[in-house]
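The pair is set out directly below:
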Amino acid sequence: MQFHAFHLMPYRHLDFAEADQHRSYWVNLPNHMWDRSKGPSLYAEYIGQLVHAAECGFEGICVNEHHQTAYGLMPAPNLIASALIERTRGMDVKIAIIGRALPLVANPVAIAEEFAMLDNLSDGRIIAGFVRGIGCEYHSSMTNPIYSHERFHEAHDLIVQAWTKDGPFPFEGEHYNLNYVTLWPRPVQLPHPPVWIPSQGSGETIDWAAAPERKYPVIMAFSPTETVVKFHEAYRKAAAGYGYEASGDQLGWSTPVYVAETDELAAQEAAVHIEALFNHFFHIPTEYLFPPGYTSIRSFQAMMEFRKGLATEKQTLSDLLSRGNCIVGSPKTVAARIREVHERTGFRIMVPMIQFGTLPDDLVRKSTALFAAEVAPQLRGL
């Protein structure tokens, strides 16, 4: 099993009492609540936490993309990845950008170029993550959600061709048309950087990722334990339908994780911060999350299964633990929870969210170090 530390980079200084008066923490949250004096130190803190994870021995460190939200301050994750590359030079650690929202861009070749540059800057340490972007980002960007799947698939094909084909060549699609595609620079990794697909349970995404020509790892994010198991099994079933047996390296799980010396201390230290994530930063109206045409009925039902446990006004740490929305405890407890899911699905990519909600720097670093020193060694051989 391999371990990749993930970070959302939320605006943890947000005044929740004021923010809760607004319709959502996404799309239209007024930006006068941003404190300009705190931004530089917050980015330095968060980048330092990911570098700390690399120093502790995580196989990878991960960033992602969100727009117009206090939930995640990485509208351009390639910029954070570039900083991480320099801060981890000489380390054997992957830099995973999970992921870039492909349908939101006018020209996907720009993403192909960015990843190729990063792959060269890192000497082949980049993992590329591709997502459609959550529904809120279609409101923010005014991208038509009806074409989300079409634009995602077409953009993916264009990017992979740009990485792998000799150019110049033309690309003709329904949404993207270019007469000349010829990538400078080209990626270091052959045939191209590994591609991961984060998901919250889209059946179409799982079927597409499992196709033999891709076999992309799907990283289930934020889902309750039973949902993770269900969709890992769905991936294996999809692979079997294609005529092969899925490897555990194609199955991933990302969830908030906090480790302390004892279960009691872990709960005491993590509770208010993880409750801030689920009770505040996840404050999104359903119509923002699922704009018309964004997803199929099948996937809508699956994603609502994820949200139904969060439907009550306030969640406690006990609620979240009982459903498996997070892992909090001693090294022994945390390792046992991960091992339990591994025994059921065989997944081999674990992506702990090392910071969540309002968790401060000292606790992030403490939990990260304990995970690396006392949890990961118990599980790497799985």
Summary: The mean pLDDT is 95.
